[in-house]
Structure formats: C-alpha cells, structure tokens
Amino acid sequence: MTQNRTHTCGDLRLADAGKEVKLSGWLENIREVGAELAFIVLRDFYGTTQVVAETPEMVAQFKGINKESTVSVEGTVRERASKNPKLPTGDVEVVPAKVEVLGRCRHNELPFQINRSREADEAQRLKYRYLDLRNPEVKNNIVLRCQVVSAIRKAMTDHSFLEITTPILTASSPEGARDYLVPARNHPGKFYALPQAPQQFKQLLMTSGFDRYFQIAPCFRDEDARADRSPGEFYQLDMEMSFASQEDVFAVIEDVLPPIFAQYGKYGRASAAPFLRIPYTQSMETYGTDKPDLRIDLTVKDVTDVLAGCGFGPFEGNVVKAVVVSGFHETRKFIDKTLADVEVVSGGKPYWFRLDEKGEIVGGIAKFVQPIKEQVVSALELKPNDFVALSAGKLGAAQKTAGVLVKTLGAAVPGHMDKEQYAFCWIVDFPMYEIGEESGELEFCHNPFSMPSGGLDVLLKAERGEIDPLSITADQYDLVCNGVELSSGAVRNHDPEIMVKAFEMVRLGEEDVKAKFPAMYNAFTYGAPPHAGIAPGIDRMVMLLAGEDSIREIIPFPMNKNAMDVMMSAPSEVTQKQLDELHIALVKPEE
Predict the structure, then answer these.
(1) Angle between helices 395-412 and 332-346 (to 10 degrees)
(2) Cβ(280)–Cβ(433) under 8 Å?
(3) Residues 6-45 pLDDT 10s
(4) Is 351:314 a contact under the CB 8 Å cutoff?
(5) What residues contact residue 44 under an 8 Å CB cut-off, 6+ apart?
C-alpha cells in the first residue's frame, strides 16, 4: 500500500487480528462513553472501520478533531466483542497507538450529514458536491457509471468497433437544439460551436473507409433540464457501421446492452433479444406516446365513434381516447389528485367514469355515458370495478393526454405495473416529415440525415403529388427502456441526389444543403457506403441501471435545473480584457 496506509478501511477481517496496521480516511463519527472510552468511525473510499480509543489522552486527541477531517491511525487490530454483521469489517476494530491529522476540516458544522446528504436540499448538495460525493450511496452511483462505461467499451471493441474521438470545437450546424458558441480569437466575428452530437463526423468516418466506429461522446446542447436530461452536456455511446442496415444496428445493440443490464442493473430481469418492434403510429395509438413503458399493462383505446356524440361538450368534434383500469378501488380524493397531476403534465384535461361493483355507470361524466351504457360497455369490454379515464381533442393532444394517463395510472394503481424489470422496445417507421406548428409548412419530423423508406422513388412520387409527403416514413428508430428514450438512430441518407431531394421537400435547395453541410455533402460525392448508426445515452442508461429518478444522481458534477454550476459559480462574468481579446462587446438586456 502507500506510505499513508497498509490497508484500506474496507480490508480488515478477523484473520487480521493482532496485526499492526495503518489506516487513513475521513473521521466520520465519534461516540464518547466517558472520558476514557470513545468509538470512532473511520471512512475511506472502500468502507469503514471502527477505531476504539481507550485512554483519556487518546479520547481527548480524537475529540479535538472535527468530523470529516482526514486522519491517519496506526494501531493494532483485534476482534470486536460486539460484532456488526452489517459491515464487512464488523468483526474487528483497531486500537490506536498514534493519530495524525492529514487534512483538517475547519468547520464545526457541516452543510448536511454526509450519510444523509440525499435528504438535503438539492441546491446545498450541488454547492457542496464534494461533500455529497462522500456519501457511499452517492459515490456508488459514480462507481456504477465507471463500471458500465468500461463494460461498454469492452463490448464494442469485442464487436470490432474502433474507438475514435471527434472534434469538440467545430462549426455551428442546424441539428434541432441551440448551440453553445465559442468565439474564435484569431478570427474576429466568427465562432466555433460545441457539437450537439458527433453526427457529421461519424458519417464522414464511414466515408473515409472506417468500417465500425464508436466513442463515449460528450454532446453539448443549450436546452432546459428535465429529470432524464442534464442541461449543457451529456454523454452517449455514439456508434456507426458501414454497409449496414437497420437490422445490423439492432443486432449489435441487442447483443451489447442486455448483458450489461443483467450484470449492473438494479432489477434482475431484462427483455431478451430480439426486442419488441413497434411502428410509431401504432405506439401513439396503443400507448399515447412514442416512449411506451412496457412494464405497464394499460393501453389506449379509441372511442371517438362511441362517445363523440354523447352530448358532452369537450367530446364534440374531437378525437376521444379511453384508458381502462381494472380492479379499481381507489377513493374520489385519489381520482381528483391523479387526474389533476395528469392535466399539469399533459396540458389536456382528462375526464372519467367508473363501473361500480353492481355494474352501474357512476362518477365523473356518468350522466352523459349512462344513455349509451351498453355500447360503451361493449366497446371497452368493461367489467364491474373498472375505471375509465378519457381524453379529448385533436389527435395529437388526445394521444398525449392518454399517454400520460397510462403512465400515471399504471404507476399509481396497484397491480398494473411490473416494476422490477427492464422492458426494451424499438420504435420504428417514424414519419419523415410533419407540418410545423409555427410555420404551418412541411418540415423534417426528426433527423434530416435519415434515409426515407423507399429512397428517391418515394420522394419523387410525393413531388408529383401521387402520395402525401406526410405518409413518407424514415428508416429511423428509437430504443426505449421503461418509458425512457435511450437513443435515436437511423439508416443514413448517404446519396447526394436523395439528400438534395429530401431537403427540396422542405423548401431548401442544393445550394442550401451545400452551405449547411459542406463537408458531408462533398464527401458523399466521392462515393459513400450505405451506413447506419445509433447513440444510446450513457447518463440515461446509468440512471435506469441505478434505479434513480433524476439524472443528476449519476453525474459526478451536474448543473442545476437552470444550467448553473453553483459549486464552481458557472457561468461567470469575465474581464473586459478577455472580451477585448475576443472582439466581443456586451449588450445588456433592457430592464
């Protein structure tokens, strides 16, 4: 071991009794039993060991050290009279002969108790993250992250992928989110951008003749935080394959991820390959979302034909969706609170009624349903004690509210969610185009680099008016686990002619494509191989494996919800000299 220790605080066992040892770590706690006896807990990265001070001098020495100071203890190992079976080191203790303070904690009061830091206010935890990380529960998530990344690297290498790093300073590119811009000192008025993803570079690697590429890639997007998304930066398993189809990508992912989830996951079960494949439109109709949580047994049913004309105002002229929850015995208070939560999340108001134990329609909008009871019961195959939650609106809005109903009721009502598993699925056949909410015109629905299913032929048919452009699907796919989108991927549009035609559909010509994606367009004109890829999010993956609800729990130094690092005081102001060197003048926003 090192000069400061012969063993770690997690090493010692009964077989070590009688040995002279030297331990180093943090003084976690001291419990005095009179002036001549004290029990001390010493903690390091590997565990804890009990130290017993048995002389007035040694007790006084420990009393003079603040908790969380780093100390070195030299002494003799002996068997504990009162063992602690919950600790690996619980059979032994150390009787100290010498104590040395290595790094004194100069604060009598800590911002929070280290072992209960997860109960503290998040702002305090992030400000004192270095203390928060001393908590073994928090530390273990970071260790898990390291183990998962290591396992991923090995698995990808075993599948003949090369790990290649791509640039961090690059050009701004329209990829869906705001760029983080970096001023170029030697090029006044010009900016680099931090990559939102290595998308173009990995496709250029395929064009360069590298057959299989991957990296644990940092990505930077100036977007708001969510429970499953960290603001600022995140990491993904970025991969690309030449001469590959969608099936090739699926085969690799279905071979790489299940063993990792089996080894490191909190739950003992995971979907076996091949994962269920659900077309996008089917997913929206059946689950109300393109991120279904297959642990939940609830689904969405369309009841527009049955209920749109029942006389209830919000249903008239709208799409009506229903979610049936069997075996429902919850209170009215539960119903009101749950549906209120759904409205907050979805933005749409849900409605309800139930079939009581006698088979009568009661509660909510029962008076509108009662006159058509037989049709409703038949259409939804209702049984006594079934609860029916409803949404209404234009198709997208009705689906969204229904999807939130499935997720919320499935998790809240006993018997409808098998939580102890990882349920994977692929969402496939995404729309290539959509009508933009703001523009009212045709726009790319997701990734503009995806190959349209049917290639150039289907685009020409849409151009001639033979088919609706909205009916065109893309060779694009999402990997979903437990209702969390782990990844998006696609078979890439590697043909310049097809690429230009795809962009012409959204009113961008060849010159626009050349201007926005010059390197990729030019490279493709030199003969690009068909290629496909995907990029599962590392942060989201580890969050699922750890069973955490917030992504910030598995990131060593996360930002807060406002994209601020309160520990490092970032973002921060810079000096006028720095601004002058970068040729930047600040314009303060109007009050």
Answers:
(1) 140
(2) no
(3) 999 999 999 999 999 999 999 999 999 988 999 999 999 9
(4) yes
(5) 8, 9, 10, 23, 24, 25, 26
Whole-number Å distance between alpha carbons of 512 and 518: 9
Q: Give whole-number Cα distances, 332 to 246, 344, 519, in Å.
A: 48, 18, 61
pLDDT tens for 99-157 read 999 999 999 999 999 999 999 999 999 999 999 999 999 999 999 999 999 999 999 99
Give the tokens for residue 433. 């185009």
- The secondary structure element, H or E, covering residue 6 is none
**Element (H or E) spanning 343, and its range?**
helix 332-346
- Taking alpha carbons only, the member of 474, 413, 481, 469 closest to residue 446 is 474
pLDDT in tens, 60-87: 999 999 999 999 999 999 999 999 999 9
What Å distances lie between residue 3 and 6, 24, 105, 300, CA to CA?
8, 10, 22, 65
Count Cβ atoms below 10 Å from residue 58 Cβ, excluding itself. 22
**Contact yes or no for 493/502 (Cβ under 8 A):** yes
Decide: 78 and 43 in contact? Cβ < 8 Å.
no
State the sign of the Cα–Cα–Cα–Cα dihedral 291, 294, 297, 299.
Answer: positive
